[in-house]
Amino acid sequence: MPADQDSIADATLVLRRRATADQPAATAAQSDAVLSADDLAKRYGASPADLDLVTSTCADLGLRIIEADAASRRVRISGTIRQLGTIFGTTIEQVTSHTAGGTPVTHRHRTGQLSIPETLDGVVTAVLGLDDRPQSRANFRIASAKAVTTSYTPLELGAVYRFPEHTDGAGQAIAIIELGGGFTQDDLDAYFAGIGIAGPTVTSVGVDGATNQPGEDPDGADGEVLLDIEVSGALAPAAEIRVYFAPNTDAGFVDAVSQAAHATPTPAAISISWGQSEDGWTAQARTALDDAFTDAALLGVSVTAAAGDDGSSDRAADHGAHVDFPASSPHALGCGGTRLTANPTTGTVSAETVWNNGPNQGATGGGVSTAFGLPQWQTAAGVPVTAGWPGRGVPDVAGNADPQTGYRVRVDGKDTVIGGTSAVAPLWAALVARLVQSTGRRLGLLHPLLYDAIAAGTVAPGFRDITDGTNGAYAAGPGWDACTGLGVPDGAALLAAIKAHTAGGR
User: Fold this and answer.
1) Active-site residue set
2) Among the listed residues 459, 448, 465, 458, the one whose alpha carbon sits nearest the alpha carbon of residue 501
């Protein structure tokens, strides 16, 4: 049905960079490659002339300028549906469709090609938010009580994965992106006291009008929010945790990541547990979000992203092989999932395999991207060529994700066990914060370091290889694979490898 032409909608315009940003290679051995916020804005932000042109053109066309930021190259605008449809050459309707999780929802939908005013041609690279369908789903699964065989606190998993001793994230910040739900301080206080720690300082940040809204979805988004905070907070209890709440739209996602990456002080890591199949994104939205991750890498921020919970098909309608975005971005650390059997007291591992509980029961995502080509740092890892296309391999790393061997957390006043690759992204974000604390330098894009000199079938320093299991189309094996990537972390060994890399000047 036609949308109310007089109703107000917001949109995000993404502008071109002053100069092309080469693929960031900022690692622990290349601290000079990490830019300050000012340097990033001057080198790769929007030029003052472009920013002035876009804001003045939009204002002259009757649109309201909500925000204009040169560093992140974004201009937020607001206008009536009639104005926006006319200016951008599209028809905006109101429709009911299904979210990535299958829930019906009414939202704006644009039809036809987008166009922009002639004066902005080549200056504006994306127009996001005219279509405000839910963009992503949370990659977590709640285990039924009878299905749980064992469960772990994040502290126990920190021991299993040998997180570096004498580190706790002090002096670091972790940003968490949430597209719904909320938390209460009472829940956090009770949870952290229950596992015997003081817990981190946690603050919420609203983006594009979204806010922390706990209690409205205890079996859905609240579970994601509390899982992310409790895992990262337990494993990096001296870090500052900032939770960015944004609308579940392409514009909201991009705005949240941009705001988090450009925050002061700069975070060590951004954790993302939301996504869906690459096919569910427009090309301009994928590019805009990947560009935001590029900014993060240049600023020395490591982005960790859940690889999906629906096996190699990623819940795609054709049941073929698909990967989850944003984990498939070459500027995000894709986090896959395992099933772990270990002694929580001693940290001794009995078995760890690919997480796969069967059709529609949950399995780690992973595979080969059809949207992003094979990055240079992954060329020797053994990523399979699919239909003649050398694509980016997903995931990069892994950790415990099976809800049957899941994480003990507290959600809306109730203790529960949750799994999914959603838990692996904050686990790795906490590990990054502790590595940054120990090395004294932000790590940025971790991939060149993690994959350095790794040939197909060989185990990377700082990892324990997972070689048993499949996620559907792909099987685990020695070295990198499309189920668990390079493997699960050995945090102490990874820290040693980073320090050796630094000492070697590589």
Assistant:
1) 224, 228, 422
2) 448
Number of C-alpha atoms within 13 angstroms, CB side, residue 173? Answer: 18
Q: What is the 3-state secondary structure (H, E, C) of 422-445?
A: HHHHHHHHHHHHHHHHHHCCCCCC
Q: What is the pTM of this model?
A: 0.95
Span 279-312, pLDDT tens digits: 999 999 999 999 999 999 999 999 999 999 999 9
pLDDT at 27: 44
pLDDT at position 29 is: 41
The pLDDT-based confidence of 94 (bands split at 50, 70, 90) is confident
Alpha-carbon distance of 155 to 133, in angstroms, equals 37
Round the average pLDDT of the chain to a whole number and report it.
Answer: 92
In the three-class reduction of DSSP (H, G, I as helix; E, B as strand; rest coil), residue 242 is classed as strand
Containing 350, the helix (H) or strand (E) segment is strand 349-354
Q: pLDDT tier at 505 (50, 70, 90 boundaries)?
A: low
* Average pLDDT value for residue range 241-263: 97
Separation CA 297–CA 294 (nearest Å) = 5
Q: Is the pLDDT of residue 339 over 50?
A: yes
DSSP 34: P
Q: What is the rounded CA–CA span in Å between residue 222 and residue 33?
A: 37
pLDDT at position 3 over 60: yes
- Side-chain half-sphere of 316: how many Cα atoms within 13 Å? 18
| Number of residues that this document lists for the chain | 506
Pick from 496, 491, 499, 502: nearest CA to 236:
491
Which two tokens mark 410? Answer: 């507290």
Q: At what angle do helices 185-194 and 221-235 cross, to 10 degrees?
A: 50
**Whole-number Å distance between alpha carbons of 140 and 411:** 13
DSSP 372-426: EEPPGGGTTTTPPPBTTB-EEEE-SEEEE--GGG-EEEEETTEEEEEESHHHHHH
pLDDT, residue 135, reads 85
Pairing assessment for the beta strands 201-206 and 137-138 based on DSSP bridges: unpaired
Phi, psi of 431 (to 5 degrees): -60, -40
